[in-house]
Structure formats: structure tokens, C-alpha cells
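Hey all, sorry for the wall of text incoming. These are the three entities for the joint prediction.
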Amino acid sequence: MRPEIVLHSLGYLLQAAGVTIALSVAGIALGFAIGALVCAARLSPRQALARCGAFYVSFFRGVPLLVQLLFIYYFLAKYGLDVPALVAAIGGLGLSSGAYQAEILRGALNAVPAGQSEAAVALGFSGLDIWRRILMPQALRISTPPLINEFILLLKASSLVSVVGIAELTRVSMNIASMTYRPFEAYLAGGLIYLLINLCLAAFGLFAERRLATGRAS
Amino acid sequence: MSEMMIEIRGVCKSFGRLQVLRDVDLTVERSQVVCLIGPSGSGKSTLLRCVNFLETYDSGEILIGGKLIGYRDDPGGRRPMASGELRGMRREIGMVFQHFNLWPHMSALQNVAEPLLRVRGLTASAADERARAVLKRVGLADKAASYPGRLSGGQQQRVAIARALAMQPRLMLFDEPTSALDPELVGEVLEVMRSLAAEGMTMLIVTHEMGFAAHVADRIAFIDAGRIIEKGPPRQVFHESAEPRVRQFLQTYHDRNSF
Amino acid sequence: MSFEVLWRYAPALVGGFGVTVLCWSLGAVIGLTFGLAIALLGRLELAPLRWLLRACVETIRGTPFLVQLFLLYAGGPFIGLKLSATAAGILGLGAYSSAYFSEIFRAGFASVPEGQSEAAISVGMRPVDIFWRIRLPIALVATLPAIVNMLVILSKETVVLSIITVPELMYQMQTMAAETFTAFDAIFAMAIFYWLLVEAVSRLGRRLEARLTAFMSGEARPA
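and here's what came out:
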């Protein structure tokens, strides 16, 4: 094993790690927006809307991410839309993550005990206030740990974006591997950087979970 | 002089800094029914669980049929009992839990037969025969093939009693056997326990069922904050006790249970 | 994309699907076996062993599957591991899923109510019997939904194998697409196919779970 070869490319790897993180942050943000909309659709009393929401979740969780990404790529190519690869990648990650986040939010809303809204209704709260002051704050608190987990998953999934040529961590590891003819060290380095990022995220997740739990009765 | 089935002498136990049993003395003779009563947190369940060594005890002695359980007192000091020996002693002690603890992936019959197969080493047909007989004894012959999920609480507890009984133990321990049951189901379980007592089974029962204790127990022991502060025949404990804590406890019980 | 094209490539596509199923099933078997082994080993009171297992599991769960595949396939020869693409794919799926399965089994064991074991202890059962007859069956039933879920996830991960040229369905589809210039249609068909497949498998899984729960709360068949 010759680690010095990889140390030489450390700069590129760290830069690529930055791209991966930025990509993931954009993806999770887009996913949250989409997820919130899809969740609202699923919970809507309008049958057609609810079914659209359910279909979205079923489709974007059922189709593998790689297929989704390539689908977007070829779709854009076929219709001659000149969208930068980065935007397409973020879009793909966001659409996919949106389906999972919709389910997380739906689960969180269901987890808020029904008695709380009932008490609010009995006290005369308006529907909007119940939503704003009772349901949403609690749902957000409950959904924070699974959302952090989803971010970790998205970060790992972003490695697939390498197939459309974006210079994120996996792609750069591939480049280093082919340039130095030392694939083992190159991928090991890339993997370790992913691991490091994820360990930090996991630690943050534990911290957030503890912080959120202290507000409640034991 | 009848044989002492359970002798508890000077038993102390602490959970960390909290002392839950303080110098407890209690005996149960053969074919006697002794009920342990007292407020929650008094240590009665802990004491019961020490008898079959589900919980360790820090000092004192617990003798089952004259033999020390859980430890060996050698000249060099006290050492833990060998696990094989402990298992052998546990075979002779039946235990019934508050939450039944039936194994959910086995039918009632299988629940009763499993210990017979694994511990008593019976053949499949012998185990089956005995299991069915005991289930009949507790009135659940027709539920042999049912899984615990399909049985009511009272039925589950009776299966649990059958499971312990099938092992032909020398004595039986009951840890609040009816506390987790709906009121209408309590009767069927108490009835089985009553008939066991009538047959001469040695029983140590932790219970809140004062009526049962008054009528079926030979002796009652009242435990409070880890100490037994009153013991004797039901009449003595329920009606003639001079201990203020006992009177207070019974008064609260009366207030909440008469209407 | 005409039917003619599909018909011409049908053998390759069916073959590709066969490879997909092969990789998925072998990967699943390896993953379940090693996952259970890791969970069981973790129950021994050996701190260094648990630490080592924990490190392996967290490493696999903390890195992308694609990077693990590259490491095995492209990097393997440099540490004496010369694998064909398919072998690397199967091994990769096996290693990846074993980390997740080990966590599922670990949680399953932890979820067995203490009272079930206490009942067995109080009747004098040996520890080995308590484990095999009581704890393990109950834990396995508890983990069934999570296991089915992971198997579905694993089936989706098989498409990543195409990147290291494993000749599974996705790879065959892309070959066909490249040769006939039908990239978009091909990928569209893939999307629909996988969506239907995953839906079907998920539903099957749910029915199996329902059957098992009904079994545990119903009547046993006569002995």
C-alpha cells in the first residue's frame, strides 16, 4: 500500500468532499420542499390529490436512484434542454429525497397524539392556529432525527451522481485511481472521507436527539 | 413438626444506595399458604424473586427445603452456587408472574410442554399427556391449541399456572398474579389458586387481593419499606394489628373498596 | 423504441434479469448469514470483539455502496483479491447488507421482553435452550418487517452493479440503448419495470408479515 500517492491528491479530494456536501445540502433542501408538498397532498381530503401523493411516494421510492438520475439526464438530452449537470443532479436527488421526506413528515404528524388537537379544538382554537402552534412544532421536533438520518443517506446516495460526470467525491476518487493506477488507495481515501463526514453527522444527530428530548417529561 | 419449605433469615438487599430489604425473616411450612401484602415499593416482589434467586440477595439466608439457594457457604466464605445446581433447585420451584410471560410463539399446550421436554426430559408423548392433564386441571383443556394472543388475560394466567404446575414443583411463588387482569377475570384465577391451596400446595403469594388473602392464607406477612412489620394468621393481621402502618394501609384499602 | 428492438434483445434482457436475481439472492443469503453471526457474536461479553464488529458495521454503513464496490472490484487485485465483476457484485451486496442486517437482528434481540426469559429461567431451563427456543424465535418474528424492507432496498441496489459492468438487467438495458440509440425509451421502461417489481415485492412482504402475525395470534394446527 502506498498512501503517499493519495496524500498528494488530498487537496482534490477535500475539494470534491465540499462539492458532495454542497450537493447534498441542496438536495435535502429541495427534498424538504417537495416532501412537504407531497405530504400535504397525501393528507388532503381530496381523493385525487391524496392519490397523486401516494403515487409520487410509491414511484420515487420504488425506482432505484440510479435509474432516476439517468432518466433525468436522458430526458434533458432528448428534449434538448441545456441544463447544467449539477442542477440536474440536485433535481434528481431532491425528487428522490422528497418521497422519503414526505413519509417522514407524515409519520411525524401521525405521531403527535390526537388528544392534543382534540384539547385545542375543545378550547376553541382555530384550525390554522392548531396547525401552527400545536401540530407543526411537534411534528418538526419528532421528525428531526429521521431527517438527519435521511441527510446521511442522501450524502451516500450522492455518490451515484458520479455517473453523470460531476466532480464530487466518488468521481474524483475514480479520476485519482485511473491517474495513479492505485485504485485501492484512491477509493480507500474517498471512503474514509465519506465515513468521517457521516460520523460527524451521526454525532450531530445524537446531540440533536438529546437536545430535543430534554424538553419533554421523562 | 412439619418441614420448612422456605426459610428466609436476616435477608438484606440493596439496589445501589437504595436498601430494599432490611433484615427480613419469614418461614413457609409445607402445605402452608402465606400471603405477602404491603404498599407499592415495599419490596414484596423483590423478596419473592429472591426466593428463586431471580434476584440476588446481599446477606442473610434463604433455604428451600433446608438447602441454601443461590450461594454456597464454604469455610472460606460465601460463593455463588454453580449454575447447574441452581437450575436444579429452580426446577422444584414454580413461579407465576404478574404479566403471565407466556411464550407468544407457542400454543398453550406447547407453553406447558416445553419445560417438561427441555428441563424434566420427558418424551414428547409423556409431555403432551401431562400438559393436557394439567390444562384440564385449570379448566382450559379446549384451549390447548390456542396461542396466547388469542386468550384472555385470565386464561393466559391460568395457562401460566398450568405451566408451573406441570413441573410438579414442591412449592409455588405468585407475583401479584391478578394485578394485570380486568376485574371480571380475577375470579377464575383466584379459583384455581384456591383449589391448589386446598390440595396442599405450598404457596407464597404477593397479592393485593385482601379477600383472597383473608380466606385462603394460613398466614399473612405485612411488609413495609423492606421490613416485615406484622405477621400472623389473617385475623391477627387484618383485625388485631397494633402497627399504625398496617392499620393505615388497611383503612385506605377499605375506603377505596367499599361502596 | 419498437417491439422489434425489444424482441431482438429479449434474450439479453431476460439473462440480465437472471443475473439481477442471482446477485440479489446470493447477496441476501450472505448478508443474512453474516448479519446474524455478527449480531450473535456481539452478544458475547467480549469488549474488544464488540468494538471490532461495531467498527466494521459503522464503516460499511457510513460509506457509499458504489465506493465499496469500486474498492472490491478495482482495488481488490492490489491486495490479492482478483474478482470477476459478478463475484465482486455479489460480495459487495453481501457485505453491505450484512452490516444492516446485523443492526436489525441486534434490535430484534433487544426487543424480546425480559419476562419471556425470566419465565424460562424460573423453570430451570438451560441458557442454550432459553436462547434457541425462546429468544431467537421471538426476535426473528419481531425483525421480519425490517428484514423484508432491507431485502427490497437490496434489490434496488443491484442496479449500481451495472457501473462495475456486472451484466445484470440495467447493464443489458444500457447496452441495448447504446446500440440502438433508444436511451430515453430504455431508461423509461427500466423505471416502470423496477417500480412495478418493487411494489409487487413490497406487497408480498406485507402479506407474509400479516400471515405470520395471524399465525401467532390464531389457532395452531393439531399436532
